[in-house]
Please model this.
Amino acid sequence: MEFQVRKATKNDMPSVLKLINELAVYEREPDAVEVTVADLERDGFGDKPLFNCFVAEAEDKIVGMALFYNRYSTWKGKTIHLEDLIVNEDYRGKGIGMQLYKKVMQFALEENIKRVEWVVLDWNTPAVNFYKNTGASVFSEWDTVQFDQDSIKKFLNP
Model:
């Protein structure tokens, strides 16, 4: 099967949102997605885009995507965070995920990014193994810490 990986366009955002929702179901959080197509279009394609995205296209449809954004490390300098890499279930095992992954890494190399980082659920063994097999380090001693919007409000206004 032939496919191509390319930079996403604003018109791709409905398909990107479908993939985001598919990932949420896979990660056992089917109702967690709040972002809309309008959010993705505004935030990814405005005057100051908040993210970059590559898509994989096969059979005239978007079947995978990698969405990432800039971060800064006080130790390393320029880094990027790979927020999501997802391939539609029907298209997995065909090398699409690897090509999206390589496209992000190539972008990082071209932009002199010092580190690419992301998180993976510890029970997602296929993903953990995929990343380890590519030479990525999977750290178990770091815990992810987050504040959702409601918690921020409660913290600031007890």
Summary: The longest strand covers residues 61-73.
